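User: Please predict structures.

Assistant: First:
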Amino acid sequence: MELPSEHAYPTHWEADVVLRDGGTAQIRPITPDDAQRLVSFYEQVSDESKYYRFFAPYPRLSDRDVRRFTHHDYVDRVGLAATVGGEFIATVRYDRIDERGMAASVPADEAEVAFLVQDAHQGRGVASALLEHIAAVARERGIRRFAAEVLPANTKMIKVFTDAGYTQKRSFEDGVVRLEFGLEPTDRSLAVQRGREQRAEARSVQRLLGPGSVAVIGTGRRPGGVGRSVLRNLLDGGFTGRVYAVNHAFPDGTTELEGVPACRSVKDIDEPVDLAVVAVPAEHVPAVVADCGEHGVQGLVVVSSGYAESGPEGRDRQRELVRQARSYGMRIIGPNAFGVLNTDPGVRLNASLSPELPPAGRLGLFTQSGAIGIALLSGLHRRGGGHVGISTFVSSGNRADVSGNDFLQYWHDDPNTDVALMYLESIGNPRKFTRLARRTAMVKPVVVVKGARHSGSAPTGHAVPTTRIPDATVSALLRQAGVIRVDTVTELADAGLLLAGQPLPDGPRVAILGNSESLGLLTYDACLTERLRPLPPRDLTTGATPDDFRAALSAALADDLCDAVVVTAIPWVGDDGPPDGGYGGRALAAALREAVAASPVRKPVTVVHLEIDELVGALGAPLDGPPEGEPDGARIPAYPAAERAVRALAEAVRYAQWRRQAAETGRVPEYDDIQEAEAGSDIDLLLGSGADGPAAAERPGGAAMPRSTPLGPADAERLLARYGIAVRRTLPAPDPDTAAAAAARLGYPVALKTTAPHLRHRADLGGVRLDLTSEKELRRAHQELTDSLGKAEELWPVVQAMAPRGVDTVVRAAIDPSAGAVLSFGLAGAPSELLGDTAHRLVPVTDRDAAELIRSIRTAPLLFGWRGSQPVDTDALEELLLRVSRLVDDHPEVVAVDLEPVVVAPHGLTVLGASVRLAPRPASPDLGPRRLPAY
């Protein structure tokens, strides 16, 4: 293995991490400049902790100890420190050892590891985070096993090792527990790591949303202005905690403003401050952050502008803001944020520019745009007649730190949130986002509208890695994760209203009833467009009364032949007025809600209405004494157009189906003929490495995609064969004689085709001749090709034995720097190239994923006997997809596989063309130790 030069400082080991209590710490290599920090750290460690570390009383470090613990070669001896506010709170180190336990160097692959955590920071998960990072460093440096010796009484440290999830060997000798464990990640270690990540990130969000005290920094002395508005909104919203007004320009002697304590600096506040809202000019923010950090503030909401949205200088200012805040253990919402809301009665937090705190409800909202956030809050308020509420809301602005991923972690376990609504303009880590979204979608709906879909870049202010995968692929991956993706903010609200107030449908069958035949037909057509199965509309006639609606809805809810109901309503039409003397929206709403409440069957119900006063508000108003377990009672969403109601219902149907299918997880099959180790050796040889090298994620600039190298046909076919993927042999045919000789070796009938890049897979240009049954036909075809398309050296003609007739398909796998490995499938030619009819799944693909993949393209009927044709062997096709998935998952160095065409016949399939590209192992932003993104 080629290792870096001794003492080269590995910048890429630096990381910000979220700890168990939601605070942050920085992990970095220890350097000789840290000598005084180490001494100061050690002085604050208790005698008991020192005893556990050195197995003897060890009151102070000698000069020799300090030198040994601060001078490392970053290969055989490595030390990492966790810091807060620039000071050490914990350290870990490893020393490479041989089989006798003595100091060693490469190729020894075992190391002894030891930790020391300051007593004040024990229990925060610092040691667990350090173990993840030191293990990743060790793997990069060729170490495969750790050994640790621990006193039996040091139960906390033993638990750190045993809970990590690695395969362990434990022994007891001479009064010491010796633990040995391999460093190769396991399913359990990955699950442990992600579980810790979820709890830590959720806790960090909870600290921002549920503070016991808030300081508004930048509060103006006179009404108006951003800071003063936030302070007023906090107070008007009824915040249950303590509030402080802070402004360095307050005159001496100012002690109160708006009825709350006022001071010139947060450091002048005598009590702890949990959250600070920063509303000062950008040039003054660093001083404010320093004051907050030194005072122990837990989190910041930065509404100040002048950061990355303003250009390169602002982007640098934004990076420094994040670095400074994290160094003190604080997380940031913003900068350029609109603010946060939490309607929990025990909190009632309105730390935002919204003049009103919405009512409490079951919707969680995350937006990356203040304008969109305002529009969503206003629209939901209007749509529900003032009764639709939210649980939490955040408008993250430039989202330099806290992102949608963090809120997905929080909402997953939040009992006050039933539906997560998200407006995203950029996704910094698509693979992590889809993983977290899938986990959350298993228990509650996640609805996303994605802005900036076609610009090819992130909005101004969003410093995120770029992704090369097209928007259609992103949409497919979100669908795979169970995310409900909609196109507009209006559809986001439409879906949220239905999902928050109605049960999920059991199927796609829809009953339609109402007092307008025309509106019923429009609803029927909309159902067909959305691939639902509508029953014939039931027309109650224009003279229908609220009692008629109640009876019809009750009958539909009791009908086993429908899974959902759409009620259509127009104003009552008649010469003498309605029979009961009134047909207002309140009467109709009461009738519909009574029918729903009285029904023992839970089905989603929506209303499509045209100009009926008070109906929307009456349908959304809370009931008196709602049934237990139904906090919103029988609230029914109403829509002004059939298409909107049906589209929201269709999304609910598809999501419910995904939930049912996701409950039965697929599996990644094992194939006895796969030669994984041999394929790895081939790849190492082809890349010229001969051994494992550090992954791109573990190198400086690891997020960049390494330069890839195409394999020659023979090497590509050999590598694919290791995974049971046979490519039909081709032989070069530069002239008629060589072509004839090749055909004789392969056997007739044969195909003659060009393989030049500008003609490959272009049968429409005449570069392919099929079913050549004799040498005479072959020679004539060769002459025709060269006469019509150019010289043989320009065409690169080849001869290939004919494959059984079938459907031409294409299978591809590629690695995107941010999304990871993606498997794609479509029909070859125009369907995939011209119409974009291609389906995608994240690797690794399960057997269920493979089956869904081939059925999810619009042209899938061609594979299943369309118009009387013979169905093809989809079982063989699914197996091929699974084998390709295994190849790229087992070997991240395989950055692209292209199989085209793959001819799927009624029995079996044939791969006629294949290309493979290799590169040094690319970055995988969702693997490796936990770390906060550094954009």
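Second:
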Amino acid sequence: MVRRILIRSLLATGCATLALTASHAAAQIGVPTPENPTPAAAEAIAEAQTETAPPPADEILITGSRIARQDYAANSPIVSLSQDTIQNTGRVTVESALTQMPQFAGAFGAANGGSTSTGLNGGQAYASLRGLGSKRTLLLLDGRRIQPSNPDGSVDLNIIPDALIENIEVITGGASTTYGSDATAGVVNFRLRRNFKGLEIGGQTGVSDYGDGNSYRLTGTVGGAFDEGRGHAVISVDYTKRQRALQNERSYYTARQTTPGLSTIPQGTVLFGANLPSLAVVNSIFQGQYGTAALPGNAAGRYTGQIGFNTDQTLFSAVGVPVLNFRDPQTDEAYIVNSGTNSQQVNFGFNGSSLQANLSRYNVFGKIDYDVTDTIKAFVQFGYTSYTSLGITNPTLASNVYGLTVPVTNPFIPAAFRQVLASRPTPGGAFTFYKALNILGPRYQSYDYDVYQITTGLSGKVGIRDWTWDLYGSVSKAKFVNAQTGGASASATARLLNSPTGGTDLCAGGFNPFGNVTPSQACIDYISRRTVNSNELKQRTVEGNVQGGLFGLPAGEVRFAAGADYRFNGYGFTPDAALAQPDGTSDILGYSVLRPASGSVDTGEVYAELLVPLLHDIPLIQQFDLDLGYRYSHYNTVGGVHTYKADASWTVFEGLRLRGGYNRAIRTPSVGELFAPVSTGSVAIGTASATTTNGDPCDTRSSYRRGSAATQVRALCLAQGVPTGIIDSYQLGTAQVFALTGGNPELQEETADTYSIGGVIQSPIEAAMFKNMSLSVDAYQIKIGDAVGPLSIAQAFQFCFNSGGNNPNYSTTNYYCSLITRNTASGVPINPLQPLLNLGTFKVRGIDVQFDWRFGLDSLGLGVDAGKIALNAAVSYTDQFKIQALPGAPTYDYAGSIGTGVETTAGTSHPRWKSITSLTYTLGGASLGMRWRYISAMKASARVVSLTSTTRGVDKYNVFDLNARFEAGETTEFRLGVTNLFNKAPPQVGDIEGTFDAQNYDVIGRYFFLGATKRF
């Protein structure tokens, strides 16, 4: 508490001090216009206005086009983010700046605090334009492809050299004609500072209001000319450290829910399946020995609940019946909740989860440019990133497919429970045992990445008109090592459970699983395992381009660009031997089954682009240009594919420009989607309730079992394998299943048709206060066919049982039902399939609005030294977000909802309205700014499919940030700020307490940051 007060006081005092000195005009988010060009364009224009104008090779290249030109007007909607915008997020990684933009959905990133699955993306951060996923958002570095860090083709934002970013340009819509595959949702181009000179040192630190989530960053950049100005070199070094932010420090998180969740607890519980014990025997123990009330059973006189074990070796009842005789103290790991009428269970909880994963990152980037001759230039650049992130999650839960099997000969079975076992129809049969193995501690997954990329090339003049050429090659590799601890050996655990001595012959004291009993360290070591998996991705690229003017027309010069490239992407995954047993199983409880995999994709492409000025200086048409493009790509996997575009730009008069176009884009299956290893992973399906479509539909608590089609649902459950003896008492007892997924070499390319239309208007008012106003409005539509993705297993359960009318006959042969297999003894789903397929279609449609206004206070008569005001607002409206899971299946519009995405890492929030607005006051070398982030209310996506669902949505969300800057002389700048100034809590997502969308909402709370930059 003292520490928190000191932090608040120190940083609040700093904010107040800088507020009094007021403001530096920091660019925030902008639409490039003649009065507000991108930094790269502004620099090029400034150079062009000097006596030594750059040669044509230095003309401005616009993101989304290969043609260099004197202007910088993009025909596609483009938004530019400055370095100041990134810094004002208060975070030390670039993902926050992108996620907060209205064009982006919150995607996989810093909030990935831990996973029970063996993913190949732990610790990474992605950009998801329009919520269509990182693999459909092409990331570029100065217009060139970056080494993917994930087999699905996604680029990790953590490998971007943040310290050298000048600005980020974002274009919505397909750009495959310009850049090739993957640019179906759009392009994010990180443009680096050019011709850096001198030495710059920077640092930043931050901490949350709760005293955690600390971040530190140190950067150093040095650059300059050599060989009498013929060459230029720059090198930048960046060290970043980000620490965990903890859930249990925040009141809006809770480790104890009031609704049923996981019921696998440290005490251990027994599932009897179809081999049910005698109710009379069970009650003779509970009533006769423990003095409890009588427990209920079925009509056949059998007990249908579960039996758990107190640490004193007495029994308690659970799941589907009242919890009686639970003697252990209730803790976050084991506490009682109501689960229905006359039904309770003991929930499992974990209070050690992270809201923000830790990160330790080193990044080095260097580039050398050299004028070989007056007409030929050469460059070489290299980038290297090494970072480590640690994911932490709950202890191994031996349940579901990881449930243990215990023989009746185990010597540690309590005497009272032996009576229960003996009363079963098959008294000598082994029993299924669920237990949280908290004795092993939490599960830790470390993610170690080493990524490098070396690019070298030449450029020059062709000697024809102003034609220029360039040729470059790039080699890169991403190496990933994933170490896992906290898992248990299934075979070692089985040996202990089946040992006639209880395991005393294998480790000191043996292993008593009944009750929350801690065995000897020797026994813990005997079952504990550490596993290591490795993944390697390689990319090789060669590309050549030529561009220039062809001939003149009355409306201007016809210009072109043409080129060809070759690209190789290779992939190899090696799992730990314990996770890839020869029989296709895993020996590790708590981590995924994995298989080794490898593969490669070769791509050859040719393209051409033509800029045709059609009309000039006629009424209502100052300039009308047409930009046409075509690309042919051949892949060794899907064969030949074609992409093309037609964009138009219409300058009506000075200050009003209209733009729009059509793009046919493609995305071919990535090397990972084709060849990824078959593995299992934990997938949340929710907990069954009478008012939602969550959970297992066969669960007696579900809306399916209690709805108008209860008879058909019951029959389908029986047909799937739920035993007759427990069909009317079946409860899953968990909110997750372990789905089986993997690559599919039969996948075909996705196709996307994207449309955009809009315009930019500059203020026609000459008055000083209003002349620097601009407004852009752009409408877009992206329709993706044959979309590659996993079929959501949660939706497979819902659709199998006719949610949304997807199985009206309740047929077992329905496609969705074919993905579900059950244990015929317990009814529990066993590794349901989550296949990677060419699915149906995704269709996203909306409107972006951008407003910029800058004026000096002298225009209000306050004097020339009164300072300046800058107002900026970026607003996005989502009209449609349609998903069709399979061809011919119903199409659902998820616009304005939360909970369903095209894939889990793409973001599941689709608000109608999302905006970010900044107001900045500038006075000399100081500034004070306020940002307002807004997300509109959303309904639960379950209500899109089922109108009767009562799953809760989220309320509208308003968050305010404060930032300030102060220049101390010409070479030193200080900055500080507070994000989430009023400590706004995130809205709960769904009906389970403590569930939040950490990718879209601020779950860390109020956050203070302080930074400085020194130039020499």
